[in-house]
Design a protein that fits this description.
- By secondary structure, the chain is mostly helical.
- A two-stranded antiparallel sheet has the order 1-2.
- Helices cover about 65% and strands about 5% of the residues.
- The protein is built from 13 helices and two strands.
- The protein is globular and about 55 Å long.
Length: about 240
């Protein structure tokens, strides 16, 4: 499942001179940052928001597509309660969501950075790549590059493409261009548009071979095509 909504948008294929989705992301920041996954704490399952829209069109507004529970009539307190049940069951997604609520002071919870870090770490210990990525971002912003790199690496190894891109940036800033290109190549091959754009720039500067850029472009475009569907396009059009 794509991380962000914008990864699913139908745009012309990337070439050596252009990565259309990158330009679109710059012009549509809100769309670029919107998460595509919809998580249901009532049963601990997730689907993409394109599928949610299709489900709702069949007169199932506000119901869980998995357990059919009524989500629309629940208060914020009840929804937090559902999430807490999943937290108690050691569900890493719910733990990470609770951490995010404490981190930003959402869902009626008072902002508590210490509690947020504890919960992110708990979810990370369960192997949840998004928790590792959140921890990496926090450590990076707080001036702790070694800890940030550790968590970016853990998230990247668990399949988090954005973490792979960020790891490449850290390697590049440290002067390890070969390792940066390797990370960006892996990320781009999985459909990460920032990584693909950095490889394109690297090619223009002579740091990436023509054979490498062509093979990665093919893998990138194939990955992007796999993330697109009519339902996802329809959901995206609502936001344009």
């Amino acid at each position: 499942m794509p991380i962000n909504l914008i990864n699913c948008i139908t745009l012309p294929p990337a070439t050596r001179s252009s990565v259309p989705i990158k330009d679109f992301a710059i012009a549509n920041q809100e769309l670029a940052d919107e998460v595509m996954e919809k998580y249901y704490p009532c049963c601990g399952k997730s689907i993409c928001r394109g599928c949610v829209r299709s489900f709702c069109k069949s007169d199932n507004d506000d119901k869980c597509p998995f357990c059919n529970s009524d989500r629309g009539n629940k208060t914020e307190e009840e929804q937090v309660g559902d999430n807490m049940k999943r937290v108690e069951a050691n569900d890493p997604t719910s733990i990470c969501m609770l951490a995010n609520s404490y981190h930003h002071g959402l869902n009626g919870l008072q902002q508590d950075q210490t509690k947020a870090m504890e919960l992110y770490a708990r979810a990370a210990d369960l192997g949840f790549n998004k928790a590792h990525h959140h921890l990496a971002d926090i450590y990076h912003a707080g001036g702790a590059p070694k800890k940030a790199k550790f968590h970016y690496e853990a998230a990247a190894m668990a399949g988090h493409e954005m973490a792979r891109y960020n790891l490449g940036v850290m390697e590049c800033n440290s002067g390890n261009m070969e390792r940066a290109i390797k990370n960006w190549t892996i990320g781009a091959s999985a459909g990460e548009f920032d990584a693909m754009n950095h490889l394109r720039i690297g090619f223009e500067k002579g740091n990436v071979s023509q054979e490498s850029i062509d093979s990665t472009l093919a893998a990138y475009n194939n990955s992007c095509a796999e993330m697109r569907s009519e339902a996802r396009d329809a959901y995206i059009r609502i936001h344009l």
